[in-house]
């Protein structure tokens, strides 16, 4: 079955430190991969997406993610965390010819001053 | 360009009742998807409408139904509400030029449904 696994339901970093949020997917066909951010009481906002072009994808707010087919991973990184990055982050996947987007369970990012 | 809006923001119903949630898609978007997000979980795909027809469905019972209208608005209807239906319901619109799987989905802020 197609699935998305986000390692770590909670991640805490200090302001200015590296942010690394992990995402692994199961797939037997080429996936399309997304990272979304959700602030409290708001909908989801797209950070970035991978659609089989460059494997290193740059998104908004300084985030980027690298597609690694051999590891079936699509981890999200940001070199320097900011207090405003504190939110819930979701990794999601769809497949060629598909219509269904599958979301991971989410990782809540805490940023300490 | 207007964003995706949803109404109402919050809703409280009792078990067995019926509810209708509404979504206004971004102008020009021909595809709308609905998701259920239970507390502490990721969104779960309910169904998708493309040009006013259901285009795909997730693992939700038939008491979850929907409509999409020519003016880009859509509805999610849930009959015979159960306690487990309590969740945040999100709609997302997109312009499926190359296929819904690659086009960016724009999410609304959601409707928080509480079933007592």
Write a short abstract of this structure.
The complex is a heterodimer of chains A (113) and B (116). By secondary structure, chain A is mainly β. Chain A contains no helices and eleven strands.
Can you walk me through this structure?
The complex is a heterodimer of chains A (113) and B (116). Chain A is mainly beta. Chain A is built from no helices and 11 strands. Chain A has strands at residues 3-7, 10-14, 19-26, 31-38, 44-50, 56-58, 64-68, 73-78, 87-95, 102-103, 107-112. In chain A, a hairpin with a 5-residue loop joins strand 6 (56-58) and strand 7. Chain A is globular, with a radius of gyration of 13 Å. In chain A, 36% of the residues are buried. The model of chain A has no long low-confidence stretch (mean pLDDT 90). Chain B has strands at residues 5-7, 10-13, 19-24, 31-37, 44-50, 53-57, 64-68, 73-78, 87-94, 106-107, 111-115. In chain B, strands 2, 4, 5, 6, 9, 10 and 11 form a 7-stranded mixed sheet that branches. Chain B has a 4-stranded antiparallel sheet with strand order 1-3-8-7, with no helix packed on it. In chain B, strand 7 (64-68) and strand 8 (73-78) form a beta hairpin. The radius of gyration of chain B is 13 Å and the shape is globular. The termini of chain B are far apart. Chains A and B meet through strand 5, strand 9 and strand 10 of A and strand 5 and strand 10 of B.
Shape of chain A: globular
Distance between the termini of chain A: 41 Å
The major pleated sheet of chain B works out as: 7 strands, mixed
- The Cα radius of gyration of chain A reads 13 Å
Rg result of chain B: 13 Å
Would you spell out the secondary-structure blueprint of this structure?
The complex is a heterodimer of chains A (113) and B (116).
Chain A: E1 3-7, E2 10-14, E3 19-26, E4 31-38, E5 44-50, E6 56-58, E7 64-68, E8 73-78, E9 87-95, E10 102-103, E11 107-112
Parallel strand pairs in A: 2-11
Antiparallel strand pairs in A: 1-3, 3-8, 4-5, 4-9, 6-7, 7-8, 9-10, 9-11
Chain B: E1 5-7, E2 10-13, E3 19-24, E4 31-37, E5 44-50, E6 53-57, E7 64-68, E8 73-78, E9 87-94, E10 106-107, E11 111-115
Parallel strand pairs in B: 2-11
Antiparallel strand pairs in B: 1-3, 3-8, 4-5, 4-9, 5-6, 7-8, 9-10, 9-11
């Amino acid at each position: 079955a197609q699935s998305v696994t986000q390692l770590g339901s909670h991640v805490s970093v200090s302001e200015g430190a590296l942010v690394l949020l992990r995402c692994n997917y199961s797939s037997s066909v080429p996936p399309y991969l997304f990272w979304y951010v959700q602030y409290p009481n708001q909908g989801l906002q797209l950070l970035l997406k991978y659609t089989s072009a460059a494997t290193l994808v740059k998104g908004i707010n300084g985030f980027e993610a690298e597609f690694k087919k051999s590891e079936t991973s699509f981890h999200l990184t940001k070199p320097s965390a900011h207090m405003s990055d504190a939110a819930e982050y979701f990794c999601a996947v769809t497949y060629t010819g598909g219509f269904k987007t599958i979301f991971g369970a989410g990782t809540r990012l805490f940023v300490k001053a | 360009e207007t964003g995706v809006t949803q109404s109402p923001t919050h809703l409280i119903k009792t078990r067995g009742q019926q509810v209708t949630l509404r979504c206004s898609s971004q102008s020009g978007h021909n595809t709308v998807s609905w998701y259920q997000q239970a507390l502490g979980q990721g969104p779960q795909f309910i169904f998708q409408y493309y040009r006013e027809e259901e285009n795909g469905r997730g693992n939700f019972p038939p008491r979850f139904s929907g409509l999409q209208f020519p003016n880009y608005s859509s509805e999610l209807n849930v009959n015979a509400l159960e306690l487990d239906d309590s969740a945040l319901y999100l709609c997302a619109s997109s312009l499926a030029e190359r296929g819904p799987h690659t086009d960016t989905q724009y999410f609304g802020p959601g409707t928080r449904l509480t079933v007592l």
